[in-house]
């Protein structure tokens, strides 16, 4: 089994967000960077499959220099090697450009059996890369997986949608995105962290992937980034419990007009 | 040839409310742009749903109706949508940001070479082009985004875009299509998990409970309050992780993103990851015994109090209120 896992570095979910002076990005220096939590489910699942069936787990991450830390984290969990896609040309890329670069890098790793991603890269919260990748690689996809079972040449994947639990069957290779509930990601051991320092990270730029600026031209552009509009000031409802409850219902009816 | 194409999601022959929201928004944008609205309906025995789409503003309904289309399959649906987009060459494509829409839209975008924006909460027409607004960083920032080239494609957060007035007299032209139904991945079994339960992402009112309820044996207080309001019931991750309730009920960054008209948070502290899933709710009520709990920073109405005292009283008074209202 050869399993590819896409790993994205994202701001810590607790990070305080400030808008950069250009007005269309955040101030990055404030931010503590982590592996996107869903990608940890993806790495964990790949490692469990390798442990059961043998094979190798290769991480692929696109991002600036700091992004290597996310790949090292995945290597420390137990992945075998990593490919780091790094080029100033990627900075302005949108999801389509990122998916194109990832797809190109993944194609060069063929033959493989599975490509795992997270169901969403937190921060950007796009939930796009798995579907984009699957189409670009001409592979089937099953998103938001909460269970993956491998059989000869195929996988059974459980996914949860609004009000239903579904079992999908897919041929391999396939792209599978990991949802919370898939597994409990392991913590890297000290030994794992030491070993990760010696594991290979293959750094590739756009030229090495055969990609030019035109291939990465963004189709969407952020023109402004703003802090959320302030919510109207809260109205605290005072009094004893009976009074509070009565007043709340009155406000919901007369002021908010929602009941 | 529709200028704006929407995906009309149906399951078991029922149109999702989010599909009608997408058609309604497409109608508003099409009127501003001076173009028409198409809706794509894919399934088995679904042609009859075209009238409902017309009533909400579709000028054309592209119907793919085939016994082999009884269950959603990504590759087939993307192929059908791509056929319509290829023929109609629309300026925009709108898809609900539901589990199905999330799965379908990126594959379609890659097929037709569209720029795709996810989880959009606002759309406007500027100089003949669309401009989108979407939350980022768990709602800690909002981005204004434009597209280069067409089609301008977006997935729309449920419950945010208003339903247009329903006009049963409106008729749409039905355009029938056929599609190759081969797929390498498909559902082999579907088990309903929320029989009779209101779906969180579609609910207009949500009552959620957190660790302030102290234990699973008390969660019925939240459920009863939900019942009184005719609400869907949600939960914080703390109580989902503790196994009190099913994880389908989790609201927040790693759970569901909801946007009801009214969200009542009971014994929930309001951690940033919880807020990420509900801060676009129109009205937020917080009931918490700690006056400094962060949930009060986003709430419209706050009650500092004990859930064990407040919830039963609120349930009783709400029941009386709704009974009197009839
Ligand atoms: C990567 C990541 C993702 C996460 N995703 C999510 C997510 O999707 N959704 C989510 O909810 N959380 C998520 N969390 C967890 C989040 O950080 C909080 O831990 C969680 O939301 C807390 O749940 P809570 O408010 O129920 O519990 P607590 O934070 O323990 O709050 C309980 C509240 O109840 C109040 N209380 C106690 N007793 C009473 C009483 N008798 N009457 C009234 N009030 C009372 C307390 O004052 C307190 O404010 C995530 C965390 C991480 C790190
Ligand atoms: N820059 C990136 N490098 C590697 N993987 C990525 C990158 N961006 C997205 N992904 C993968 O795609 C998943 C979904 O991300 P997104 O579509 O951005 O929400 C993530 O969980 C990652 O597995």
Tell me about this structure.
The complex is a heterodimer of chains A (259) and B (326). With 259 residues, chain A is α/β, with parallel strands linked by helices. Chain A is built from six helices and 13 strands. Chain A has a nine-stranded mixed beta sheet with strand order 9-8-7-10-6-1-4-5-11, sandwiched between helices. In chain A, helix 2 crosses helix 5 (190-198) and helix 3 crosses helix 4. Chain A starts with a strand and ends in a 5-residue tail after the last helix. Chain B has 326 residues and is an alpha/beta fold. Chain B folds into two domains: 4-176, Rossmann fold (3-Layer(aba) Sandwich); 200-325, Rossmann fold. Chain B has helices at residues 17-33, 50-55, 74-88, 99-112, 220-229, 237-241, 272-278, 295-298, 307-325; strands at residues 4-8, 10-11, 14-15, 37-43, 60-65, 92-96, 115-120, 122-126, 129-136, 141-147, 152-156, 173-176, 185-192, 205-209, 232-235, 262-266, 283-288, 301-304. In chain B, the strands form four sheets. Chain B has a seven-stranded parallel beta sheet with strand order 7-11-6-1-4-5-12, sandwiched between helices. In chain B, a hairpin with a 2-residue loop joins strand 8 and strand 9. Adenosine monophosphate binds next to helix 1, strand 4, helix 3, strand 6 and helix 4 of chain A.
Helical residue percent of chain B? 25-40%
Radius of gyration of chain A: 22 Å
Q: Low-confidence parts of chain B lasting 5 or more residues at pLDDT below 50?
A: none
Bound molecules: flavin-adenine dinucleotide, adenosine monophosphate
CATH topology of the largest domain in chain A: Rossmann fold
- What's the total helix number of chain B? 9
Summarize the helix and strand pattern of chain A as letters.
EEEHEHEHEHEEEEHEEEH
CATH architectural arrangement of the largest domain in chain A: 3-Layer(aba) Sandwich
């Amino acid at each position: 089994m050869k399993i590819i896992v896409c790993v994205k570095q994202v701001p810590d979910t607790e990070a305080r967000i400030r808008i950069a002076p250009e007005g269309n990005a955040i101030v990055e220096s404030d931010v503590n960077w982590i592996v996107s939590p869903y990608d940890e489910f993806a790495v964990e699942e790949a490692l469990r499959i390798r442990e059961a069936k043998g094979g190798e787990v290769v991480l692929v991450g696109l991002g600036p220099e700091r992004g290597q830390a996310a790949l090292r984290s995945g290597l420390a969990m137990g992945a075998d090697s990593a490919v780091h896609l790094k080029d100033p040309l990627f900075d302005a890329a949108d999801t389509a450009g990122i998916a194109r670069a990832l797809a190109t890098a993944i194609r060069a790793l063929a033959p493989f059996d599975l490509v795992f991603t997270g169901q969403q890269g937190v921060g950007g919260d796009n939930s796009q890369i798995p579907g984009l990748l699957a189409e670009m690689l001409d592979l089937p996809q099953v998103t938001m997986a909460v269970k993956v079972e491998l059989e000869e040449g195929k996988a059974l994947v459980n996914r949860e949608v609004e009000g239903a639990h579904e079992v999908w069957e897919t041929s391999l290779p396939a792209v599978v995105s990991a949802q919370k509930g898939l597994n409990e990601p392991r913590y890297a051991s000290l030994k794992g962290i030491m070993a990760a320092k010696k594991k290979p990270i293959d750094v590739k730029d756009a030229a090495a992937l055969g990609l030019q600026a035109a291939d990465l031209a963004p189709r969407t552009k952020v023109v402004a980034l703003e802090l959320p509009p302030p919510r109207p000031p809260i109205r605290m409802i005072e009094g004893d419990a009976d009074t509070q409850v009565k007043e709340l219902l009155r406000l919901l009816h007369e002021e908010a007009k929602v009941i | 040839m529709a200028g704006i194409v929407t995906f009309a999601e149906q399951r078991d022959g029922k149109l999702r409310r989010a599909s009608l929201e997408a058609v309604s928004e497409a109608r508003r944008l099409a009127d501003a742009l001076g173009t028409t609205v198409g809706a794509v309906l894919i399934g088995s025995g679904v042609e009859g749903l075209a009238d409902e789409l017309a009533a909400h503003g579709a000028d054309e309904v592209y119907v793919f109706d085939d016994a082999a289309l009884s269950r959603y399959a990504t590759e087939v649906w993307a192929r059908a949508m791509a056929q319509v987009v290829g023929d109609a060459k629309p300026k925009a494509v709108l898809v609900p940001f539901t589990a199905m829409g999330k799965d379908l839209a990126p594959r379609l975008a890659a097929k037709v070479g569209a720029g795709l924006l996810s989880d959009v909460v606002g759309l406007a027409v500027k100089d003949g082009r669309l401009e989108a607004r979407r939350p980022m960083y768990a709602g800690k920032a909002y981005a204004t985004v434009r597209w280069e080239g067409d089609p301008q494609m977006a997935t729309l957060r449920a419950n945010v875009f208003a339903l247009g007035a329903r006009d049963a007299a409106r008729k749409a032209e039905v355009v029938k299509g056929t599609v190759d139904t081969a797929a390498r991945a498909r559902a082999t079994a579907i088990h309903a998990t929320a029989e009779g339960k209101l779906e969180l992402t579609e609910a207009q009112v949500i009552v959620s409970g957190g660790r302030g309820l102290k234990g699973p044996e008390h969660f019925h207080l939240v459920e009863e309050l939900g019942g009184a309001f005719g609400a869907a019931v949600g939960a914080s991750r703390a109580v989902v992780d503790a196994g009190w309730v099913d994880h389908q009920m989790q609201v927040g960054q790693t759970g569901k993103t909801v946007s009801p008209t009214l969200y009542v948070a009971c014994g929930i502290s309001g951690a940033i990851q919880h807020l990420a899933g509900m801060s676009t709710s129109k009205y937020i009520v917080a009931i918490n015994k700690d006056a400094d709990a962060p949930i009060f920073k986003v709430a419209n109405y706050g009650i500092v109090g004990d859930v064990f005292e407040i919830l039963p009283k609120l349930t009783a008074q709400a029941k009386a209120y709704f009974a009197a209202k009839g």
